């Protein structure tokens, strides 16, 4: 199933959002290099440029990309009775579900790595930073953001296997992403809101192993299990071939 999915995805439009993420990240640094930052120009550091990119990437693009990737992974099967043909083969629905969801997570991980490379390009090429590269900050941010996106990706994948329309899951994702910027400042609601969790997990903080507080980590674990198991049960039992 993994090989089958790869043959379908390697020539699909899934590479467009994957490539767009680091391009947008690099664009932030390129824009900052041309701006008159005034007194802030002397305080330019890796932490500053990383924080500016993360605020855009983790609060807006990463949640949207999770929904876009989930929809693209299921798009082929929603066309011309693709689910009926796929599930008529001697393969379990569980194998289909796991293979597709694995690729959603793999592409999200690739996006995280490329965005961190974008941070390095911005710092060295556009902003000419000479201080040592904070490898631990980049690694923790990339891994923490990826883990925090798993519940959101599971929820979006569930919706994508359920609804045939590409626009419906995407519209839901956009609607829920917009309040994330307002919620992320709340110590009470932000850890419980899936669309705000990637932002919390990527910004440097003294709490937790990967900048993830205990409350956020518990919520991510519970939400991830609920959405993954819920989507799997629905996929196994629902008549989605009709």
Please give a structural write-up.
- By secondary structure, the chain is mainly α.
- It has one domain (2-35, 44-237).
- The protein is 72% helix and 0% strand.
- The protein has ten helices and no strands.
- The protein has helices spanning 2-9, 15-34, 46-78, 82-87, 93-126, 135-162, 167-177, 180-183, 197-202, 214-237.
- The protein is globular.
- The relative contact order is 0.15.
- The model has no long low-confidence stretch (mean pLDDT 84).
Features:
single chain, 242 residues, mainly alpha, 10 helices, 72% helix
In short:
This protein has 10 helices and no strands. The chain has 242 residues and is mostly helical.
What secondary-structure arrangement, pairings included, does this model have?
Elements: H1 2-9, H2 15-34, H3 46-78, H4 82-87, H5 93-126, H6 135-162, H7 167-177, H8 180-183, H9 197-202, H10 214-237
Helix pairs in contact: 2-3, 2-5, 3-5, 3-6, 3-7, 5-6, 6-10
């Amino acid at each position: 199933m993994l090989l089958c999915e790869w043959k379908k995805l390697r020539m699909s439009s899934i590479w467009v959002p994957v490539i767009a993420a680091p391009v947008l990240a690099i664009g932030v640094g390129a824009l900052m290099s041309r701006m008159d930052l005034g007194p802030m120009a002397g305080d330019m550091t890796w932490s500053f440029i990383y924080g500016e990119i993360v605020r855009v990437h983790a609060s807006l693009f990463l949640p949207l990309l999770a929904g876009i990737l989930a929809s693209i992974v299921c798009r082929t099967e929603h066309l011309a009775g693709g689910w009926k043909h796929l599930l008529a083969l001697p393969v379990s629905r569980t194998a289909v579900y796991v293979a597709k969801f694995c690729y959603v997570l793999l592409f999200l991980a690739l996006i995280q790595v490329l965005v961190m490379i974008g941070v390095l390009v911005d710092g060295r090429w556009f902003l000419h930073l000479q201080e040592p590269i904070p490898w631990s900050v980049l690694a923790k941010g990339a891994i923490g953001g990826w883990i925090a996106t798993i519940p959101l990706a599971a929820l979006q994948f569930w919706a994508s296997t359920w609804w045939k329309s590409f626009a419906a899951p995407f519209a839901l994702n956009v609607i829920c992403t917009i309040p994330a910027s307002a919620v992320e400042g709340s110590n009470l609601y932000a850890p419980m809101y899936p669309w705000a969790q990637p932002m919390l997990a990527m910004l440097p903080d003294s709490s937790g192993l990967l900048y993830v507080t205990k409350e956020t980590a518990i919520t991510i674990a519970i939400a991830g299990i609920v959405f993954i198991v819920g989507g799997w049960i629905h996929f196994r039992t629902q008549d989605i071939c009709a």
